[in-house]
Amino acid sequence: MKFLRSPIAEKGRSIFLKGLLILGLTLIAGCAPSRAPIAQISGPLYSSVSVDLSPIKATGLGSYADRMGAYLERDLRAVFAGPLDPKNRQLPALVVEIRSIHFGTYEPLTRLDVFPMRREGTKDSLQGTAVIVKGGKELARIPILAVHTSMRFNPESMADEEPRLIALTRYFAEQVRNELDN
User: Fold this and answer.
1) DSSP for residue 84
2) Cβ–Cβ under 8 Å, residues 143 and 105
3) Lowest-pLDDT range, 31-35, 58-62, 104-108, 158-162?
4) Residue 136 CA to chain centroid, in angstroms?
5) 169, 75 in Cβ contact below 8 A?
6) How far apart are the C-alpha atoms of 68 and 95, rounded to whole Å?
7) How far apart are CA 72 and CA 173, in angstroms?
């Protein structure tokens, strides 16, 4: 017990407490926002949100493109639920054009995979453009690329594209919102 009250122990405890204080202050400073918060825009931003599938239908996807469009329109309406005011025609409309879709291929596990869960998932991508239109005039055209990683390692679930399509359209809708900063 005398050791705990010796000058050496006191000095060590003092250094430890100072280090702990510096660590605490560093953590608090690291949690503070690095820039001033952006003022939130209150009220609606768009009169409507729609999906234009004509570029991707031209590639021959047909009914698959219609199904993808239905999922994407549902997800866009959910993501932009607050900023929509269909009654206010003074606001611009948001039109999302879909240009391409790509589903990554499934690579089956082999017996040589020592750590099969370390492998990356399959990358699926959806590419399009967010177009802001007001009075028939194009105000802005923002390219959007969403690359979503499907982390399923089961061959049966990877072969089923429907859950992957739903996840990809949901992720794409969130990317549209992020790119538009709303």
Assistant:
1) B
2) no
3) 31-35
4) 29
5) yes
6) 15
7) 7
